[in-house]
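Hey L., structure's done. Input below.
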Amino acid sequence: MRVLYGSIALWALLAVGFAVAQERGAAPATQKKPATPEKTLQFDLDGFLKEHDKNGDGFLQRDELPPSYRAAFERLDTNKDGKISREELAQGIALLRPRRRPSDLIYMLVEMSDSDKESPREVQRAYDILRRLDRNKDGKIDGDELKAGREHIANNRVDFLFKQLDANKDGRISKEEAKGHILANFAEIDANRDGFIDRAELLKAAMEKPTIAPPGGERRTTPPPQPGKR
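Output:
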């Protein structure tokens, strides 16, 4: 059952996105051409070395690295000679880049806000969504407020799906009415096996935690621990 959350959420998201796009008639946003990987990598390497190679020997010792990067020293120093060469830095530079977080999406929206007229609206929409989550208006979002927001989203999603699929408006989705992932997972969502999916059954499926399947491994319900995750 847990795998259905992602499937149903994706199905609904695609449907909602299509509806919104049709309503707005929005064209795909044009994006700035990013810098070539070669130029970005060259700047990162040489700039980092020049800034932190205090003794000018062309290598980086542990104490020359910024404190926040020293935990990666052993992995960067692949030949275990106690210093990091330019080649070792090039091979392991990903270890020095900040770990991406879901909330970084906000930075991306702000950074791209000059590309079209829709970007400022999307940033404003993100702000409005977060502000609505803060029900007690204390400037913070706690676990209870986040839970209430999650339940609100799930209920809206289920209402949308019933509006789209419940053709005879009897408050249930039959197998003939079901589509997409709901049809593919019909038997699993139909918990009481009466041949219909009612609102409570669909809401339960939508509220289940997602299951993550790592490459070559079994599915698990929580992500694996990540070094440096806050």
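The chain has two domains: 4-19+102-207, 53-96. Residues 1-43, 212-230 have pLDDT under 50 and may be disordered.

-- N.
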